[in-house]
Amino acid sequence: MDKARVLTLFIGVVRAGSFHRAAVEAGITPQAVSKAVRTLEADLGVRLFHRTTRKLSLTAEGARLFELAAPGMRQLDEALDQIRSSKSEDDGMVRLTAPPSLGGRVLVPLIRGFRELYPGIVFDVVLSDLHTDLVEARIDVGFRVGTSPGQNLVARRLCDVPLTICATPGYLARHGEPATPDDLLRLPCTGFRRPATGRMVPWELQIDGNLVYQEVPAVASFNDVESEVDAVRAGIGIGQLPAYMIHDDLLSGRLRPILRRYSASTVGLYMYFPHRNQMPARVRRFIDFVAEASRGAEQSLSRLVGRAR
């Protein structure tokens, strides 16, 4: 029995949820996949799947085998991919993920600067507001704005991302400028919903030296921050927006910062990546490059994300 092959097919069935889809992805017949799984079950002396005409589910032994085998097979796939895609330490691909709002503002300048040093390294960028499983998606490095991405990842806070309360001059001329956070409760505002949960994100305010989370009624809420920025630019309401997204608007006067004394800066720009014992040299070099850019004066990521003025 080719144990690597049958384990690969077993894992493929679990991930695909059916023998047929696993067979299509493997380029073989469903009968061949089913035979491989039966061979594995016979060798182990246990059933791995509960099978019915409509449903396929793992037995307790099957779930345990998947839990133990899947990480090892991913490492094997990564090892083969690294050898296949890298002729040397200065060649190969780095895969990144980030929210769409960071793509052009942060990732593009970083990629440009890094490729000036290592032109043989190419990038594949996946932009999504949803959380991406880096290991499952074979992503090398992720970027997020907010809080630290999680305990099972290596995360580095690159810089602060100030949140700026702002509105258009035309809006303020029509509705008046709020003097206190309580005034926000009677004025049209915009809001942001988390894409994964649909929950409204409360505004973060500094009040008497304390960080306060305040629910602000929204006349228009969005699960895409770019759209919320467009709504504030259109004069629909007051918004609390990441400064890096409205930096040019604030400099030009298209948007005016308000309630400055209550603005908070608890949000950060994070770079994160999986724990790996044998990280490809190109990925390590990119991580070090980004870390250095966050410290350097001329390449400071604080300038890339922008600060309210």
UniProtKB/TrEMBL annotation:
Q: Which branch of life, at top level?
A: Bacteria
Xref: Pfam families: HTH_1, LysR_substrate
Keyword line: DNA-binding, Transcription, Transcription regulation
Q: Which Gene Ontology terms cover its molecular function?
A: DNA binding; DNA-binding transcription factor activity
Please name the InterPro entries in this protein's record.
LysR-type_TF_proteobact-type, LysR_HTH_N, LysR_subst-bd, WH-like_DNA-bd_sf, WH_DNA-bd_sf
- State the PROSITE patterns in the record: HTH_LYSR
Q: Where is the HTH lysR-type domain?
A: 1-59
UniProt xrefs under PANTHER family: HTH-TYPE TRANSCRIPTIONAL ACTIVATOR TTDR-RELATED, HTH-TYPE TRANSCRIPTIONAL REGULATOR
The UniProt family comment states: Belongs to the LysR transcriptional regulatory family.
Protein name as it appears in the record: DNA-binding transcriptional LysR family regulator
Q: Could you tell me which species this protein originates from?
A: Cupriavidus gilardii J11
